[in-house]
Amino acid sequence: MYMIAIIDYDAGNLRSVEKALNFLGEEAVITRDSGEILSADKVILPGVGAFGDAMDRLNQYGLPPVIRQVADRGTPFLGICLGLQLMFDSSEESGGAAGLGLLRGKIMKIPPRQGLKIPHMGWNSLDIRQDSRLFAGIPSGAYVYFVHSYYLKAEDEAMVAASTEYSTHIHAAVERDNLFACQFHPEKSGDVGLRILKNFVEM
Description:
Layout (H helix, E strand, L loop, with lengths): L2 E5 L6 H10 L3 E5 L2 H6 L2 E4 L5 H10 L3 H10 L3 E4 L1 H5 L3 E2 L13 E5 L10 E6 L1 E2 L14 E6 L1 E5 L5 E7 L1 E9 L2 E4 L7 H12 L2
Parallel strand pairs: 1-2, 1-3, 3-4, 4-13, 5-6
Antiparallel strand pairs: 6-10, 7-9, 8-11, 11-12, 12-13
C-alpha cells in the first residue's frame, strides 16, 4: 500500500478522487501540509473551476514551490482536469494567467462549433499511444468522462499519451518522466478510470 497525497487548495472533486483510491485499497490523505506532500509516495493535483482562482489559492497556501519540489524529486505526480491545466505554462482563461510551468504548453478555449455544447460534458473515446504507461492494459477507443471548457495544446506532442476530438483536437492526457496528467476525470470514468488510477499508483 502506498501513501498518496491529494493536494488540498479548496478545489472541488477531492473527495471523489479519495474514494476511488480507497476503492483500490490505497491510503490517501487530502492535505496542504508540505511535509505530508513531500513524504508521500505519489501526489495528485485534482480540481475543477477557474484557472486564475486556482493559481491564486495555490499561491495563497504556498504550494507551488512544494509542487515543484515533488516534480524535481521524481515522485510520481498526477494532475486531473484543472490539475492538468495548472501544470502548464499559461491559460487563455483568466486573462492568460501563468501556471506552474512543470510542462510546456498552453491551455486554450474550446472553439465554438455548431451542434456542440461548451462546456464539453460527457463521455468521449480516446486515441491512446501504445507505449503509454498511464494507459497500460487499456485499449485505444476506451471512453472516459470529461467536464471542461478549455483544453491543452502541448508544445511537444511526444508527451501526449492520449487525445480526443471535440470541436478541435484535444491533448487529453500527457506523461513525461514522473509527471502525468488527464484532462478527463478518471475517478468518474468507471473501470477504465480505475485502471488508469491503478496504473499511476503502481508507477
